[in-house]
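quick one, 329 residues, struct below
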Amino acid sequence: MSTAEQAQEGLICAYRLDGQGGGVALGWKDINNLVTSSSTPAWVHLDYVTDSAQEWLRNKANIHHLVCESFLAEDTRPRSVMTENGLLVILRAVNMNPGAEPDDMVSLRMLISAERIITLRHRKVTAINDLREDLEEGYGPTGAGDFLAKLAGRMVFRMADVLSNMDDLVDDLEDSVLTMHSRELRPKLSDVRRQIIRMRRYLAPQRDTLLQLQNERVDWMLELDRIHLREMCDRTTRYVEDLDAARDRAAVTQEELTSLLAERMEKTMYVLSIVGAIFLPLGLLTGLLGINVGGMPGVDDPMAFTWVCVILVVLAMLEVWLLKRKNWF
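---
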């Protein structure tokens, strides 16, 4: 059966690990007759939304129904639970699929024991493809513990570039506060803060999950595997701290932008207030001279308009002098 045909039926890939870094590819027929007494585990990777994958998990995989329901849950967060069928682990990976947002993190579910490894996903996980290539080249995982450690390492490694790009974006936004128009900067700030929040929502519990995994007392996890998991936990902790720092910097940048906009508004209102203070008396005077009643002075004097203009100029200069004397501008 071709890879495309297997994928259509829910089976993305399956291997029997040989314990030396390689593996033998398996199909649906081999999985249905899977022997779990082998010294090396079998790895089955499925698309959990397909009917065939769900039917195999519920009826043929010998998984307790409560564990199966948790395994197939619609909405998942990173966690680790020891069950009667093995260690249930749920992690999140950055979305590296074309056209996708990296912060829209992809769920990867695993049920791991010494004899069998079952992984589920719907959207493509790049770290899984890395492991498949490693197996085909002969330097992949040798056992269940090595599989978990290497997969976690690949997932954490893929996050580095995404977080670095996000940090650079925050740097650019900080430098652009005084030069970029607010109508361009504000949506960019909102987008980057939203991305940080979405990534931290999963990375923080993933850090706790990796911390818990290195302390799980299972026979198939070697001390070297625990050391690798501890290193991945430390890196994830640094990523969470970097996200916190980027979030705080973005918040400070947004506050600075708000203060800058408020300052500009205050300057504008100040200038308008000064202009209004100068022209209000002048407007009052011209309004009085414009009323259409008898007895208005200067009606018959051809120089009256000139004298009124001179008086208005002198009055305006006097107002400016008074405002400066009071240090109002």
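The chain has two domains: 3-259, 270-325.
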